[in-house]
Amino acid sequence: MLRPLPVWIGWRYTRAKRNNHFISFISLVSMLGIILGVAALIVVISVMNGFESELKQRMLAMISHVTVESSEGGLKDWQTLEKQVRQHPEVLGVAPYIEQQTLLRGQQVKGVVVRGVLPEQEGEVDELPGKMVQGSLSDLQPGRYGIVLGVELAWSLSVSLGDSVTLFAPQLRQGPAGVLPQVRRFTVVGLFEVGMNEYDGHMAVIHLRDAQRLFRMPEQVSGLRLKLKDMDRAWPVARELAEGLPWYIRVNDWISRHSNWFRAVQTEKVTMFIILSLIVAVAAFNIISTLVMAVTDKQAEIAILRTQGMTPGQIMGIFMVQGSLIGAVGTLVGLVLGVALALNVEQVVHLLEQWLRTDLMPDDLYYITDLRGEVRPHEVLVIAGLSFAATLVSTLYPSWRAARTRPVEALRYE
């Protein structure tokens, strides 16, 4: 016999066949609700984790972990500053850059962000060299005025490899016809694809020396881009670097520069967590209904146990054990099912697409077309803990009612 006694009796009540089949049905529905709620929570949160990681990976293909800029405009004597920041033990790579917003004309005209880079150093801070679909970043040679475009930008301008485009610099020059914008013709020498419209459709890359001539920044750059050993430590490393640099130097990390992206994802995760938690809450209310009916059905048994010396607290424990077992089994099965689905969500989506004979995430509508689940153990534990806590709380009222049963009144008509 299991000890203590309320646990053993609660276990027997849970396993016993009931004369009232409706109570058994409600118990089954409650357990299925908990399983569905826990599994749905784990799958949705894991898919959103995968989306967040994929978004972060694609963004970091074009942005740096830390940027060093001057509040006074162009960064002068950047070579000395580059040597200084390279001495930090967590800095893996440094590359200078110039960045300007301007107009680019092919068959059409479009506003773009032009970034001037040193091709031999760009690979130290981002993944742009590996994202080239045509040409190579090394084809950017100073003085030859070559340009690398995002694939969507090239499509919108109706240009391809080898075509010419005209770049309008924001700086003005005085000519015979008056004040005119600085204009330079460039040859398309490469195309890249990151997978984000912000870069594929709005960014062009040229050589740093050409950018200095075009934007009239001789021997100056917009700033330095840094790659760190651990990108999650970008903020403390940025603060450490700022402490050793002049007051007019600004050091920014990638999280603060793109906080809106990740704040939006975090908000969506919290919203989905709250919405899907309602499934578990409904299942917990079903447990209350189950136990209330069980208490009513077992009034005589409760009275007999009381007359044999069981205290109200022990009676209460019996029904808390009964409800908790329903919640524990539902939570455990939901965990196993949810983790299994989250780890194989890609295969599940492919099976659904084959069964429905449709593409659930077409390439022309979505930039991220493959769902990937990323299960984080601490989030799984939080979901399991909250689910079990909800079921445990739902047992309190029915158990309290059982503990208040008066033996004389319960046995009066037996």
Average pLDDT rating: 82
- Strand percent estimate: 15-25%
Stretches with pLDDT under 50, minimum 5 residues: none
Q: How many distinct beta strands?
A: 10
Strand arrangement in the largest pleated sheet: 2-3-8-5-7-6
Compute the number of helices. 16
- Main sheet? 6 strands, mixed, barrel
Distance between the termini: 29 Å
Tell me the domain tally: 2
Assembly status:
single chain
Structural class by helix and strand composition: alpha+beta
Percent helix range: 40-55%
> What Rg, in angstroms, do the CA atoms define?
33 Å
The H-and-E topology, N to C, reads as HHEHEEHEEHEEHEHEHEHHHHHHHH
Q: Which properties best describe this structure?
A:
single chain; 414 residues; alpha+beta; 20% strand
Structure description:
It is a single chain. This protein is α+β, with helices and mostly antiparallel strands. It folds into 2 domains: 5-57 and 261-411, no CATH class; 66-255, no CATH class. Helices cover 53% and strands 20% of the residues. The chain has helices at residues 5-15, 21-59, 78-86, 119-122, 151-157, 197-200, 208-214, 234-243, 254-257, 259-297, 299-307, 312-343, 345-356, 377-394, 396-403, 407-411; strands spanning 66-70, 91-105, 109-117, 132-135, 146-150, 164-175, 178-192, 203-207, 223-228, 249-253. It has a 6-stranded mixed β-barrel. A hairpin with a 2-residue loop joins strand 6 and strand 7 (178-192). Helix 2 (21-59) packs across helix 12, helix 2 (21-59) runs antiparallel to helix 14 and helix 12 runs antiparallel to helix 15 (396-403). 35% of the residues are buried.
